[in-house]
Amino acid sequence: MTFENWENTGRRLSGIINSSSWWLGDWLIYGKDHYSDRYERGIRAVGLRYQTLRNYAWVSRRFAIDRRRASLSFQHHAEVASLPVPEQEHWLDQCEAHEWSTKQLRKAVRLAHENEIAGEDQDTEPTQRLAVPIGRMRRWHSAASHAGIDLEEWVLVTLDSAAEEILAR
Predict the structure, then answer these.
(1) What helix, strand, coil percent values describe the chain, rounded to 5?
(2) Measuring CA to CA, which residue among 46, 53, 87 is closest to residue 67?
(3) Which of 36, 89, 79 is closest to 58 using CA atoms?
(4) Can you give the pLDDT at residue 73?
(5) Cβ(7)–Cβ(39) below 8 Å
């Protein structure tokens, strides 16, 4: 087998694995709706843990088929499934635009949530403009992307962290 064939086979298998989570979730939803009296027997026949199947079904319910992003894994969707729909869409858009892993997505959502909580106690201040050379901007964009968050979030987190470190001296 050539490397290209081996690589393509791995890509197809990965697609099947990702799709199977959706299929099992949809299957469980259908079974619960149509075979409530024999539902548990069907679940036992699958051979997977009940909680695993319930998790698949929960994510599947939160994302109608037309909202599922083929370019993203089931796990990407699971990471944001508990959020309101507009936030789900925002974060999935970010994942597609920046090609984030699920780990990067999880980190970005967590940081945004932490900053939201911290910001609730602060008064809103006027925005300040800052002239930044393009070379630095590119470098900062790259660092933010590498960290799995958008530039504005990265700048705020980085500056807050630097300020805390300096003020603690």
Answers:
(1) 75, 0, 25
(2) 87
(3) 79
(4) 93
(5) no
Q: Is the pLDDT of residue 127 over 70?
A: no
Residue 65 sits at the vertex; the CA angle it makes with 59 and 67, to the nearest 5 degrees, is 80
- Cα–Cα distance measured from residue 168 to residue 13, given in angstroms and rounded to the nearest whole number: 51
Using pLDDT thresholds of 50, 70 and 90, give the confidence band for residue 75.
very high
Across 17-26, 86-95, 136-145, the highest mean pLDDT is recorded for: 86-95
Instruction: In whole angstroms, give the CA distance from residue 61 to residue 52.
Output: 14
pLDDT band for position 137 (cuts 50, 70, 90): confident
Question: Among 19, 44, 20, 18, which residue's Cα sits nearest to residue 31?
Answer: 44
| pLDDT tier for residue 61 given thresholds of 50, 70 and 90 | very high
Q: Give the span between the Cα atoms of 122 and 132, in whole angstroms.
A: 26
C-alpha 114/C-alpha 99 separation (Å) is 23
Record the tokens describing residue 130, joined without a space. 């800052």
**Token representation of residue 144:** 């933010």
